[in-house]
Amino acid sequence: MAEQSRVATITTPNKELADKLFEIWERPHTLYGWLASVDHKDIGRRYLVTAFAFLVLGGLEALALRIQLALPNSGVLPPEAYNQTFSMHGVSMIFLYAQPIVSGFANFLWPLVLGSRDMAFPRMNALSYWIFLFSGIFIYVSFIIGQAPNDGWFNYVPYANKEFNPGLNMDFMSLGIIFLGISTTIGSINFVVTWMRHRAPGMSINRLPIIVWGTLTASVANIFVIPCVSLAFFLLWLDRNFGTSFYNVAADGQPLLWQHLFWIFGHPWVYVLVLPPIGLTADALPVLCRRPLVGYTPVALATVSTMAIGFGVWVHHMFATGLPGLSLSFFSGASILIAIPSAVTVFALIATIFSGKPIINTPFLFFAAFIILFVIGGVSGFMTGSVPVDWQLTDTYFVVAHLHYVLIGMNVFPIVGALYFWLPKITGRMLSERLGMWNFWLMFIGINVAFLPMHLTGLWGMPRRIYTYGPDMGWTTLNLITTVGAFIFAVGVLLLLVNVAYSLKAGAKAGPNPWKAGTLEWATPSPPPPYNFVVIPTVASRHPLWESHLGDSKHRSYVYRGYELSDHHENVGTTTVDAIPDIILKMPGDTILPLLLAIALAVTFVGMLFHIWWMVAAAGFGLLATLTAWLWPRAHLGERTEPGTAGASS
Amino acid sequence: MTENKTIHGCRSAVHRGALPAILAIAASAAASRRAAAEIPLNYLGASGKRASEILPLTYGVIAISCAVIVIIAGLLLWAILRRRTGPDRRTFDNTPPERSGSGLQWIGWGVGISTLVLCGSVVWTVATLSAVIDPGKDPPITLEVTGYQWWWDVHYVGDMPSQGFSTANEIHIPVGEPVRIRLVGTDVIHSFWVPALSGKVDVIPGRTNETWLQADRPGTYRGQCTEYCGVQHAKMGFLVIAQPPDEFEAWRQAQLRPASEPASPMAQQGQRQFQARCAPCHTVRGTGAGGRVGPDLTHLASRQTLAAATLRNTPEQLAYWVTHTQQVKPGNRMPDIDMGERQLAELTAYLETLE
Q1: What is the ipTM of this complex?
Q2: What pTM was computed for the model?
Q3: Engineering a disulfide at A623: which of A19, A386, A600, B244 sits with its beta carbon 3.0 to 4.6 angstroms away?
């Protein structure tokens, strides 16, 4: 794997070297080249586009739900269609949009902000994308054939069991989520190892951008919680298809087992969805305020401790299940006190704006709006943390309002802000400010018109997940307002799409650093070349490009002087805490194997769904063959020595 | 110009976020008691001991939340407006980054105050929890409520089996007395909720959860299933009717009696229809009808609603329900009963005798 070989340094951007690196790293511009790419920037872009497509689908489903609920006793969607639509809305947004969009940004940005040439495992990175794509398609096929998941996004048993739900609906869901879980797990391991080894020399852990803290924390959590949800769904699939009794009461199974397994996953998952976008905000907002983030260390620690406490709050989804008062008190306390690290982040961001010189452009507005939406979603969460109050609030529209402030306010708003901020880096072109303003105000007014009154809908007792309500319940006006707000919000999202299309066609050229930002990604051209950096940068502070202004480091970072590494796909490996270079890592190049492996997996899951066992066996054989090819030792990766040459390992 | 517009917009935006919330909640608080009739599931008001003891905490956390939103919105707005500049790209070239002030005191004060408020809330929560977890005395009445897809079986547990009886979708309780409720799960998970009297407790197959409620004022309070339980989850309501103790006792005695024999020839014809078509699923005590699939109909005519608080119990609605169950509650377990006009009139006449 390793090779202690030549170490060359240069002092200026070197055209000859850049050309050579381009030869090594650029993929062929053919369909094969496209399918075989393992470039983290390709993968990041694909994640962003695919996740956004699922956001649009989930959004259209939401509009259908809102049309049905706009008036009492409406018959636009029959009950079963409504139940499938609200389930698919949740599944799309929570599983297929909110986490993958974060993976998209992290995939694109991590190697750039860390001063690396790629992620630790480029082929696994491609694999995780293809699996995400195929699992999303797998789940959506159910919708097309009219047997979509119909038990909400948390799939409570026994309703999810075969006895009450005989169609393929919940089999699609069980297998689809297990399938997607493979992608998330692979991606998370890749992030953790990239963080451990693939940082520019000098990028010690006290210099990591907050997005790295956010994604790292989320990835570590994923490695623990994805097995819970995959197991839960696997047991459900066994119960449904092979007559086991994990959740079957008649044979001493336990419906509450499902709830524990699901929420041990489900609550940390909420932080998986919001910590990385908070990280994006904590990195971008200070640039727009022309100062470093206030309280870097507290914010980094708050990110990690939110997740740590987040593992001890899952029972607040189960306050009404009849658990003993003492355990309720414990989980209630944890659920309320988890607001403390969030307060750290909120005050740090406000202090950054306060003591900086804010430049009010579109991304700034999205980030600033995020702060207040974060607070609104946070305090309503604090309310649901209080057990006796939650006995009233839970499973009403109050919770629906709360979770939409959390997911839209703390995921969609920072993500859209981050698009305005980083899309110029990704595409090389700016977005329109004028369209951006319309985009922002429509989305901001839309979310508040739709979801602020919805708190009251909840306090007035409207239960979640009802396909209709009577005119005598007193909820008509509020529901109509929410529907109007949802459409305003949708127009805002549409304008974002228009703006992106406009920018791709006619946007102003961005140049390498349009915001005069301080982190490493802005030292590369926009869009960055396939090799990212001509030489591996050396980092001496948190803001390598701001050192001449801030003057808070004795040493200087170098972007044009460092390891050259131009033999093959190569990267410098550094130590985990201090990022001291200690190895040259051989990186694999483009290959079709990840796609083949993902296809074999997809065929396996289709076979399992329809009980076509020969298909599963054939796909299993394909899996083995692909894995064998994948793991076959390669000389250029230093995995074996060519006969007749000296040993290259160390 | 652009800049001014933006800033002005910004201010109104933050206000848009905070003020209506507070106004709406304040207005609803004032209106909540009056609104009980117009908003049957409203829980900003309370009519029973248990719900009343939770209510101050509910308003407390709402007040804390609104205050936090207003304070943070104010601080944020102040921070933004203080030294803002417009979105011109050249601004970035002309404004070099600088480390102006540490700002750490914001975090110190903000987090310090938040922590105190949060700790106070935990104490208040735990105190309220222990105050409402049991009624303080042994409830004289015990009910066994069973959730089915998509209706409620209500069994009054008597000291002797002959003192117990079953009804459906309508619970009568005496005012001023705590009532113990055992929640029995059978098919899927449901949740039992009467917002004016008490919070939710889930009805879980394989478990028996216990809760209690108490009404302090006579009245009719609406309840609802609040755990998603399938296609007709939306139409799984019930009523709790709180009566003065003597009225309750009269009702209880009436419910204990078996159904009386129908007197009119029409109703007698209807009873035969019932035996043929309805008895496999429904029970009418004192007759041959003993089905256990659907609700006990012994005193159907005494109930205010049909189909789990979905329809008013009038002869017309009753006839409509029997023949159009799949239109009223698509997917529910009772099929549309296909019968001629005369037969339907007879059946309805019989059901009307079940007082």
Answers
A1: 0.92
A2: 0.93
A3: A600
